[in-house]
Amino acid sequence: MESLENKIVWVTGAGRGIGKAIAEAFGKEKAAVALSSRTTEELQSLSESINATGGKASPFPCDVSSEKEVKNTYHKIQKTLGSLDILINNAGVAKFKPLLETTTEDWDWMMDINLKGAFLCVKMVLPSMIEKRSGHIFNIVSVAGIQPLPFSAAYGASKYGLMGLTAITREEVRKHNIKVTAIIPGAVDTPIWKGIEGDFDHSKMVPPEDIARAVITASKQTPNTVFEDIIIRPIAGTL
Predict the structure, then answer these.
(1) Nearest to residue 110, comparing CAs of 129, 92, 89, 85?
(2) Which CATH homologous superfamily contains domain 8-232?
């Protein structure tokens, strides 16, 4: 298995939840981690925490729905840390309601961050990865991207789109020795549930650390052994 020490990793949506767990995991592997989200305070706190335990992390605030911000952030990462090895497209938002109650604003919000944001980041990092003939892109999808769930028209459409983007990107860059992996979690115990009505048993959800572990494991694999898509379900029979 490959070492991740000194690898340059960009994690979007790193301020909390899955992104935070992934960033911390790469920090433990001694990778150089670029942390992005729209919440500067959370990034600064996470960066200090990772660095205090021997890791290497730097905050790069970014709204991934803005092409200008994505471009500027990527160039800052290159200038500060070097050529990117791994991209983790994790930034995502969700709002669940019946299709007839879903507003155009809801739709655009989820599409802009969940799908357009990933597209912009992938498009930004690919030229340098193609040039050096190496790199790994992870898109954090959802089971909502492979099976229809009620009350999630906009969210599900964005995640189905992300699955399509993942598969098509993989076919285009396979010849350049670049890996593209979709991580497909079931219900994960993150702060996103605070905005959703319902009585959920968080003890039966997937811990964010399980997602991080899968990403680290896949990152260490050689091109011939890496899993292309990884599905991580909650405890069988729950949620």
Answers:
(1) 92
(2) NAD(P)-binding Rossmann-like Domain (3.40.50.720)
Query: Which residue type occupies 197?
Result: E
Give catalytic status of residue 155 as yes or no. Answer: yes
- Across-strand partners of 59? 35
User: 């040039």: which residue's tokens?
Assistant: 131
Amino acid at 172: E
Please state the φ and ψ torsions of residue 159, each to the nearest 5 degrees: -80, -35
Tell me the per-residue pLDDT of 118-153, one tens digit each, with 9 for 90 and over. 999 999 999 999 999 999 999 999 988 999 989 999
Sequence ranges of the domains in the chain: 8-232
Using alpha carbons, list the distances in angstroms from residue 121 to 49, 81, 189: 26, 17, 26
Question: Could you give the residue ranges of the DSSP H alpha helices within the chain?
Answer: 17-28, 40-52, 67-80, 104-110, 117-132, 153-173, 208-219
Q: Which of 155, 158, 173, 179 is catalytic?
A: 155
